[in-house]
Amino acid sequence: MPELPEVESLVEFLRERAVGRPIAAVDVVAFQALKTVDPPVTSLPGLTVTGVGRHGKFLDLDCDGVHLVVHLSRAGWLRWRDDLSGARPVRRGKGPLAVRVRFAPEDDGAQPGFELTEAGTQKRLAVYVVRDPAEVPGIAALGPDPLATEFTRETLKGIVNGSRAQIKGLLRDQKVIAGIGNAYSDEVLHAARMSPFKIAGTLTDEAVSDLYDAIVDTLRAAVERAHGIAAKDLKSEKKSGLRVHGRTGEPCQVCGDTIREVSFADSSLQYCPTCQTGGKPLADRRLSRLLK
After folding, report:
1. Which UniProt key words apply to this protein (predicted)?
2. pTM of the model
3. Start-end of H helices in 25-65
4. What is the dotted CATH code of the domain comprising 153-291?
5. pLDDT for res 229
6. What are the domain boundaries of the chain?
């Protein structure tokens, strides 16, 4: 799933390639992906992309005041095409293509643009056309952005104080902190040397400070690694930069212990026993509260 660092890199990528371009056409292939009707998606052709931003994991293209907002969900991705003039006509309900956005042709006839695709059978990619990003329910409910200057140690302390949630689930809750998903919550907790099952409200001030540093440093480092990388290469770059997530059975890069996994109905977490749980393996059982 694309998380804050990857979406931030897509923002940078699109600012360089899409800003200033008039939209020629928007083809919605997967009708379930379009979540709004007013303004209609047909209002976008003729408008110019004037800015690109991010709200948590949401990608926001400002098109002369009308916003094309995208949430890539678990298996969605954005693929830039330097020339879509020869692209095959869309076949609704066939293949991974969900939306195709074409920009005005260049002088040589090439028509740049991008495609939103989604792998798998569970179609959760979401596209919104709105006048204000706050009209998107998921954006309106977002917690603070962990890379914003307003996100301080005191902010995090206020979030965890009194909370009975496990810290892994708390970090993944977009209404609490925006942009962190399954992968980077594993990475943050490894950097903070903290068990994913730790109850948030039991953290000491020192532990909160360590967790804050781990959140900010982990995300900033991931954003820096992704800087300047083409959209098509971001997935592989993300995987190569992860130290524990997705590395079950491999040695921990910090202590050499074996990375272990806890599996759930539709996801899993990875951790290092030596670094995070005092050497004690966690019970591999389903905890529904962790999946919220």
Report:
1. DNA damage, DNA repair, DNA-binding, Glycosidase, Hydrolase, Lyase, Metal-binding, Multifunctional enzyme, Zinc, Zinc-finger
2. 0.92
3. none
4. 1.10.8.50
5. 79
6. 4-140, 153-291
Rounded Cα–Cα distance for residues 255 and 193 (Å): 11
DSSP state of 48: B
Q: Which of 81, 93, 70 is nearest to 7 (CA)?
A: 70
Which amino acid is residue 225, in one-letter code? Answer: R
Per-residue pLDDT tens over the stretch 207-232: 999 999 999 999 999 999 888 877 77
Can you tell me the distance from the alpha carbon of 126 to that of 139, in angstroms, rounded to the nearest whole number?
12
Distance CA 24, CA 114 (A): 12
* Cα–Cα distance, 125 to 77 (Å, whole number): 9
Whether the Cβ atoms of residue 115 and residue 97 lie closer than 8 Å to each other: yes
For residues 89 and 96, the answer to whether their CB atoms sit within 8 Å is no
Q: What CATH number labels 4-140?
A: 3.20.190.10
- On whether the CB atoms of residues 196 and 275 are closer than 8 A, the answer is no
Give CA–CA dist 7/226, Å, rounded.
10
pLDDT, one tens digit per residue, over 185-211 is 999 999 999 999 999 999 999 999 999
The rounded distance, in Å, linking the Cα atoms of 142 and 151 is 13
Q: How many helices (H) and strands (E) does the chain have?
A: 8, 10
- H helices within the chain, ranges in order? 4-17, 137-140, 153-160, 167-172, 182-191, 205-226, 234-241, 273-276
What pLDDT was estimated at residue 231? 79
The CA-atom distances, in angstroms, between 34 and each of 52, 55, 98, 122 are: 19, 18, 9, 15
